[in-house]
Target: Arsenate reductase
Amino acid sequence: MIKILHNNSCSKSRAILEYLDENNVKFEIIDFIENPLSKLEIKTLLKKLNCAPSEILRRNEPSFKTLNLDLETISEEKLIEILFEHPILMQRPILIKDKVAMIGRPLENVRFFIEK
Model:
């Protein structure tokens, strides 16, 4: 079963749910805004995504600009702390299947992820 880190206010996240539903793909929704991930869960997710915390930051999010982060000097541990405190900054949707994960864009990549 695929797990979806979902933000209901995100149109792309809602579109992925609709696509999965239309294609009879079983999935579990994890609303990471209402139920934020723990720091350990964020670290585990980053391993499954095979990426650094800075790669899943939504840099256009208003709260990102408010935080005025210097991504050149900030540690990965501090970025994980920021993602924990401000889950809205995390890219979405994120699909998780067993030991791998992907950011759910573009849709063609989602199709490939589901099939493999």
In short: The beta strands are 2-6, 27-31, 94-97, 100-103.
